[in-house]
Amino acid sequence: MSGLADLKLGFIPLTDCAPLVAAKSLGFFAEEGLDVSLSREASWATIRDKVAVGALDGAHMLAPMALAAAAGATGGLTLDVGPSLIAPMALNRNGSAVTVSIALAEAMRAADPEVMTEQPVSARALARVIAERAGQGAAPLTFAVVFPYSMHNYELRYWLAQAGIDPDRDVRLVVTPPPRMVEQLRAGDIDGFCVGAPWNAVAVLEGLGEVLISASAFWPGGPDKVFGVTEAWAHHYPDELRAALRAMIRASAWADDPANRQDLIDLLARPEHVGVAPEALARALNDEIVFHRDGAGLPRREHALWFLSQMVRWGQVSADADLEAAADAVYRPDMFRAAALTVGPVVDPAQVFVDAPPQLAPLFEGPRFDSSLAKRYAAGFSIGRARA
């Protein structure tokens, strides 16, 4: 840090950067004695690397990206995961979606019109299109995700696999930064993507894509981003971290208040923030994204273990890895609770001081997840790389 009260925090232009943007713009950071500058970054890899080397004090971050180092993730990648990262706060639930090109949506509708009328849409129609293309000798369809360790990667893979599509054999997966998804779809370089708001809404409003399944339908209340810092930074600057968390807790509550919806849209629409049309942000915010209510800010152990189970399922983490230790090392509800205790009546104690049961609500067309049996869950799917 440049000074005891100076922080530089990174974010990616997505709707769920709202807690950082609102805390800065509304003066909540300043009221906590923090001089915060926000840095709009180009990609998640850049966020990770800058936090690791200290160019950023903390950042809006993909939750699985923070977990990857602690779990020994490689996934066949030459990835230097850097210093240990921790997640003392969750930033949102819901918000992402799977979108395909208009041409692919029409092909799916022709292949199985009944499936395409379902809500949410399963990938069974897509499986038929893939089989038809394979019979014709056509190249595999290409789908983009934002990062190998991301809710978006696991959401897309899960959705495909439930329809019998092997995401590592039947389609081609590529990594594309969120702001470039729509231009890649427009150029025909990809056939679909899974990304956070507002980029799905942007594709729809530009007449380029059709949303097939949103995160709120895939897993109601499912986790997504976190606020991430290095463990060393948190150790050296505990007061600054607690102050930053208090400011973002207040900002998250403000962002969830319907009375502030238009002000939030105007704030995020600024070019230095997300920089898209207000109509796209309004559509995105209407898709059940949650910043604060129902204890959304608490980084929950069972959420970390679901992410880790997906790393095991897809061969990014060894089946022998200690998932519980990784979850406990990275997800720090104790730090969130310490900040929440001093922020006043903004936080409902019943939501953040009572541990949730290990079982989570059922995901889209799948078995119920029990965090006490994460490895068994990972090995229980017919498509995946996990071994029981």
List descriptors.
D-Maltodextrin-Binding Protein, domain 2, 388 residues, five-stranded mixed beta sheet, 10 strands, alpha/beta, 41% helix
Report the count of strand segments.
10
Strand content: 5-15%
Number of discrete helical segments: 19
Low-confidence stretches: 75-81
Structural class: alpha/beta
Write the layout of secondary structure elements.
Layout: E1 6-11, H1 18-25, H2 28-31, E2 35-40, H3 44-53, E3 58-62, H4 63-68, E4 85-90, E5 96-101, H5 102-111, H6 124-136, E6 142-145, H7 151-161, E7 172-175, H8 181-187, E8 192-196, H9 199-205, E9 209-214, H10 215-218, E10 225-230, H11 231-236, H12 238-256, H13 261-269, H14 278-285, H15 301-313, H16 323-330, H17 333-340, H18 349-352, H19 374-379
Parallel strand pairs: 1-2, 1-3, 6-7, 6-8
Antiparallel strand pairs: 3-10, 4-10, 5-8, 5-9
Protein name: ABC transporter substrate-binding protein
Pfam families: NMT1_2 (PF13379)
Keywords: Cell inner membrane, Cell membrane, Membrane, Transport
Describe the structure.
With 388 residues, the chain is of the alpha/beta class. The chain has two domains: 6-93 and 223-379, Periplasmic binding protein-like II (D-Maltodextrin-Binding Protein, domain 2); 96-218, D-Maltodextrin-Binding Protein, domain 2. The protein has helices at 18-25, 28-31, 44-53, 63-68, 102-111, 124-136, 151-161, 181-187, 199-205, 215-218, 231-236, 238-256, 261-269, 278-285, 301-313, 323-330, 333-340, 349-352, 374-379; strands at 6-11, 35-40, 58-62, 85-90, 96-101, 142-145, 172-175, 192-196, 209-214, 225-230. The strands form two sheets. Strands 2-1-3-10-4 form a five-stranded mixed beta sheet, sandwiched between helices. It has a five-stranded mixed beta sheet with strand order 7-6-8-5-9, with helices on both faces.
